[in-house]
Amino acid sequence: MNSFTFRPHWLLAALALLAVEVAIARYAPQGVLRGFGGDVLVVVLVYALLRTCVAQPAARLALWALLFACAIEGLQGLGMVDVLGLHDQTALHRILRIALGTTFDVWDLVAYGCGWLVCRALDLLRLAFRWPVFQRLE
Question: Which Pfam family, any one, appears in the UniProt record (predicted)?
């Protein structure tokens, strides 16, 4: 079985989610949307990226997205940004510091779990209703 495929609709969904994430990070005030909503959406974004190119069951990809987000959070707790020496103020270092994060927070793990639930709910809706818009996301 070929485990790689290309689903352009999932790529568009991932790009739209990335735009929402950037907008939240740039414009949303401190609070629930920025502190929790963005973390929920990051799991959905990783899931959409996986669905773009990996031909595996949706439940497995949702779990991989959750585990990836939790692993990054764990690396934050271990101070991975410090270990990698990302203290310079180059553009690449700033981007990597934002992507990796610098502070461990248990509530981020809760948000990632909520993101996993969103991924599973989307897939269950797709299977239950067989709406044409969801069929494109197959």
Answer: DUF2809
Among all chains, which residue has been given the structure tokens 């989610």?
17
Could you list the mean pLDDT of each consecutive 10-residue stretch along the chain, which spans 138 residues?
A: 83 96 90 90 97 94 97 90 82 82 91 97 84 58
| Predicted pLDDT at 132 | 62
- DSSP 8-state assignment for residue 108: H
Residues in the chain: 138
77 beta partners: none
**How far lies 127's CA from each of 46, 118, 134, in Å?**
21, 14, 8
Rounded to the nearest 5°, which phi and psi values hold at 4?
Answer: -115, 140
Q: Please tell me the distance from the alpha carbon of residue 62 to that of residue 89, in angstroms, as a whole number.
A: 34
Q: With H, G, I as helix, E, B as strand and everything else as coil, classify residue 28.
A: coil
Closest CA to 100 of 85, 87, 81: 81
